[in-house]
Amino acid sequence: MKTIRTLLIFLIVLAVAGVVFIYSGQFDVAASTPDNKLVKTVLSTTRDRSVARRADGITPPKLDDPQMIRTGLVHYHEMCTTCHGAPGVEISEIGMGLNPEPPELAAHAAADPPGETFWIVKNGLKMTGMPSFGVTHSDQDIWAIVAFLRKMPKLTPPEYQAMVQQAGLGAPGAEKAEHEHGEQHHD
């Protein structure tokens, strides 16, 4: 009985200390401050285990269809290169300012299990800057992005640029910039 009481007191003290820490404002939430090794390990392990658990049982469709890969390229080029870069395309200033840093998917995307990649793209990741594309894209479009991500690490920068040109795409955000530039001249 004494052990249970001691354990209960310990848990209450721990909970109070946690609440005091939260309300103290001592934890630095600035994106410009890198996380220490313990925080980084806890957060990345929590993220990886959560994704693996939620993606368990997701069965990918056939991901080598050229049209599916092209569709994935279009979505990736327009939405993802800002933070993740691409072969020959550097991560933008926005992506460089994120904490944790977004992974350069051109380097290792094919090694990630496709079900986990699908789950991440569809649901996003809290406190990383990774949005949920499931609210704006169908599962079919998300699988197309996954298909492209599986191919991207094998692409050289010229091959990536050739695919972009064949798809009729410009630099990410170019259409928006051209549209805004055109509006300025009409004033």
How are the elements arranged and paired?
Layout: H1 2-24, H2 37-55, H3 66-79, H4 81-84, H5 93-96, H6 105-108, H7 114-123, H8 139-151, H9 157-166, H10 174-186
The counted number of beta strands is: 0
The unreliable regions are 173-187
How much helix, percentage-wise, in residues?
Answer: 55-70%
Which structural class do you get from the secondary structure elements? mainly alpha
| Overall average pLDDT | 90
The helix tally amounts to 10
Give the biggest sheet.
none
Give the overall shape: elongated
CATH topology of one domain: Cytochrome Bc1 Complex, Chain D, domain 2
Shape-level CATH architecture of one domain: Orthogonal Bundle
Class of one domain, according to the CATH hierarchy?
Mainly Alpha
* End-to-end C-alpha gap: 80 Å
Q: CATH superfamily of one domain, called what?
A: Cytochrome c-like domain
Question: What order do the SSEs take from the amino end to the carboxyl end, as H and E?
Answer: HHHHHHHHHH
Radius of gyration: 21 Å
Share of β-strand residues: under 5%
Can you walk me through this structure?
With 187 residues, the protein is mainly α. The protein has a domain at 63-181: Cytochrome c-like domain (Cytochrome Bc1 Complex, Chain D, domain 2), CATH 1.10.760. The chain is 61% helix and 0% strand. It has ten helices and no strands. It has helices at 2-24, 37-55, 66-79, 81-84, 93-96, 105-108, 114-123, 139-151, 157-166, 174-186. The protein starts with a helix and ends with a helix.
